[in-house]
Each structure stands twice: as structure tokens, then as C-alpha cells.
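User: Sequence recovery, please. Input:
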């Protein structure tokens, strides 16, 4: 993402002017915008004017509007963010307080103002403007007749195309029909790769399937590239990685990314490091449950003891409607980092983030075992009112 300008004051308020250039950038912008912020950008409005004859006519006019954000939604499939709120800028075309919706798409400049830019917002902005955070890995998860062509960026896994074709079963007298249909299917995968994957920037492209479908697909892709004299695809051949999956459905990508052989090939990518950290958490929890914990209350207790080596959180926790709730997670991250620990935010658009979200969205690997951590719940907790726990006092 291109940072055009920024200004912050000592109180923490300020603004940034940015231009999202990549799919990842839209996800970062979505995570930067919160209700109460002011978003300013150019927009097109239908303006109704009165003519000299007393009639009215409508025209579409480009104007610049600032709105106080009320709602934010992100559609990965459409590559756009919709932000709605009330107008706070002087305009002869839109009254103050009038409702308006901005649509944020790639390559459009926007100005975002906040009353407080906390440390997590600054981290998100820094990551978004890091040129190394662009798409790193492509993956095609397939079975005969079904394939998902995906991009795995530092922040999300995006399905760029779903390919679905009917493949006749291979029988003694219909083998030719089966082979022709399969050839069309592999040709569609080749076209999808050419359309959606920037071969110059991708470090590895995973072809995953049950059995030998992926190997047959790779042979077909290379044959197609040879016939078309497609030098870029032919030179990309060493970057293809064959992997096993239980099916050709998107959810099978989770098991693929957990494969040690795949992780080794993706060792220098952010997505792989997050998968590895989550795998380490589950391994630790299985081998020694006193050396790992999950859930807000248990993690908060461990942080207070200075016991957290790695803190894992999903990014949706920081999009909480309550500022106090968000501040609670920001505080945990800052406390862990100040004690020398590592805090990692997992995207819920990655398989690792999806998996952690199913386990409360927060977990920790501990520096040292804390036996019976749950028993510490009986100790006074100054923040107890934030949890969904109730306590009853018993009289003797």
C-alpha cells in the first residue's frame, strides 16, 4: 500500500492518506477503519438541480466527501470495502448529517482520520506499507472435475477462480470421453493460472489433490505451455510443488498447509510461519497442557504472570464494537511484547486464523508450565467485570 501522507499529534489522534494497490491492502484498510473514524475520499453522487423553467434534472457529479463512519463491510470476492456514515464536510450538494456510502477499491486514494491511533493500528499500517507483504504463494486444490485456484497473501487466502466440470467416469468403452474431458479441465486450470497468478512474484505454486491428479495436471500444464511457447510458464516449472490433499475442496487447503514438506518449501512466507506457530501451539497443548492455554481469562492470567512466550490472536478481535474490548486485546499484546514475548495476529481469512477463531480466537504458548491454571480463576481479577463469569459468595 502506498502511504501518501500522515500526521499524528501527541494525543494519538491524526490521519493517514493511502492508496491501496494490492488485494492485501484492502484487507488492511478494512482492519484500520472503525466506527467513529472520519473517511474522506472522492465519490460520485446523483445531484438534482432546478432548471430555469422550474423543472428538475439529475446529473452525476464527482465530489469529495468526508463521512463519520458507522458501518464497514468487506467483500473479498468483489475486492471492495463499503463504508457508510453521515456527511461531516461542507458541501452544497450533500447536506451535513446526510447519509452516504463510500466504496473503497484498488488504486483509489483515501484519507482516514482517528481520534486515537493505538499501537495495533500503527503496526497494521506499517505492515500494509511493507512492500514485502504482497502475494507470496499460489495454490490449486483439485480433484477430477473440481479445482479452486487460490492466492495466499500475508493476510488472506483468496479464491480467484472455482473450476467445475463434469468428468465422465473412466470405463472400458468410454475412456476417450473421460480423457478428453480431463484434458479440458486441465486446460482450464492452465488458463486460470495465466489469468490470476503473477508468475514473476509468486515464490511457490502448490498443486494439491488426492492420488495423482495433481501430477497429471502439471504434465498437462507444461505440455500446454510448450505448445504455446509460453516461456514464463516453462521457467516457472521449478516453483510448482505437488502435495497431497483429501479432496479438491477449499477446506482441504488447511491440511495441505500443515504438511511439513509444504511448510519447508514455504518457510520464508508469513502464511507458513503462522501455520507453524499454530501447529506448535496444538503440539504443546497435546504434550503438556500446562505449557499452553487458550481463552481470554486463562491467557490474561498467564500474561499477568509474565509466562507468555507466544501470544496468538485473530484479527477479528480487534474489530470489536466496544473500544474497551479492543483496548483489552491491545493491552495484552503490548504487555507480552514488553516482557520479551512474541505477539502474532492471525488473519481470519487464512486457514490458521479460521482454526484459531474456532478456539476462542486467543491462545498462548508459555515460557514455563503453570499447573492447574484454571484454579487461578478463584483469585481476584480487577478486570473480572469484562468476562462472562458470575460469582456467588457463600456464607458459613
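Assistant: Recovered sequence (396 residues):
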Amino acid at each position: 500500500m502506498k502511504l501518501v501522507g500522515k500526521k499524528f499529534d501527541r494525543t494519538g489522534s491524526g490521519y493517514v492518506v493511502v492508496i491501496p494497490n494490492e488485494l492485501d491492502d484492502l484487507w488492511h484498510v478494512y482492519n484500520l477503519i472503525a466506527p467513529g473514524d472520519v473517511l474522506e475520499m472522492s465519490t460520485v453522487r446523483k445531484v438534482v438541480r432546478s432548471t430555469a423553467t422550474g423543472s428538475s434534472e439529475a446529473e452525476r457529479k464527482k465530489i469529495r466527501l468526508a463521512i463519520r463512519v458507522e458501518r464497514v463491510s468487506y467483500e473479498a470476492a468483489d475486492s471492495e470495502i463499503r463504508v457508510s456514515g453521515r456527511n461531516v464536510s461542507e458541501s452544497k450538494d450533500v447536506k451535513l448529517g446526510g447519509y452516504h456510502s463510500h466504496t473503497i477499491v484498488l488504486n483509489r486514494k483515501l484519507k482516514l482520520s482517528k481520534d486515537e491511533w493505538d499501537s495495533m493500528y500503527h503496526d497494521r499500517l506499517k505492515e500494509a506499507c511493507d512492500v514485502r507483504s504482497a502475494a507470496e504463494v499460489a495454490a490449486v486444490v483439485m480433484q477430477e472435475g473440481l479445482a479452486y485456484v487460490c492466492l495466499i497473501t500475508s493476510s488472506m487466502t483468496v479464491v480467484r477462480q472455482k473450476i467445475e466440470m463434469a468428468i465422465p467416469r473412466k470405463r472400458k468403452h468410454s475412456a476417450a470421453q473421460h480423457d478428453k474431458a480431463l484434458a479440458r479441465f486441465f486446460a482450464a486450470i492452465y488458463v486460470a493460472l495465466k489469468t490470476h497468478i503473477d508468475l514473476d512474484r509468486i515464490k511457490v505454486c502448490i498443486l494439491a489433490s488426492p492420488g495423482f491428479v495433481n501430477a497429471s495436471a502439471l504434465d498437462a500444464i507444461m505440455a500446454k505451455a510448450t505448445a504455446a511457447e509460453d516461456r514464463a510458464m516453462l521457467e516457472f516449472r521449478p516453483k510448482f510443488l505437488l502435495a497431497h490433499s483429501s479432496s479438491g475442496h477449499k477446506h482441504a487447503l488447511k491440511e495441505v498447509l500443515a504438511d511439513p514438506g509444504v511448510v519447508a518449501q514455504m518457510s520464508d512466507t508469513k502464511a507458513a510461519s503462522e501455520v507453524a506457530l499454530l501447529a506448535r501451539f496444538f503440539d504443546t497443548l497435546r504434550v503438556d497442557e500446562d505449557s499452553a492455554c487458550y481463552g481470554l481469562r486463562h491467557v490474561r492470567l498467564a500474561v499477568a504472570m509474565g509466562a507468555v512466550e507466544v501470544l496468538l490472536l485473530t484479527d477479528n478481535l480487534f474489530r470489536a464494537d466496544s473500544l474497551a474490548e479492543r483496548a483489552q486485546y491491545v493491552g495484552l499484546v503490548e504487555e507480552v511484547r514488553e516482557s520479551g514475548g512474541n505477539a502474532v495476529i492471525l488473519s481470519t481469512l487464512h486457514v490458521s486464523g479460521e482454526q484459531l477463531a474456532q478456539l476462542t480466537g486467543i491462545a498462548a504458548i508459555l515460557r514455563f508450565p503453570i499447573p492447574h491454571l484454571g484454579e487461578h480463576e478463584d483469585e481476584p481479577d480487577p478486570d473480572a467485570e469484562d468476562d462472562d463469569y458470575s460469582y456467588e459468595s457463600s456464607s458459613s
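The first helix runs from residue 23 to 32.
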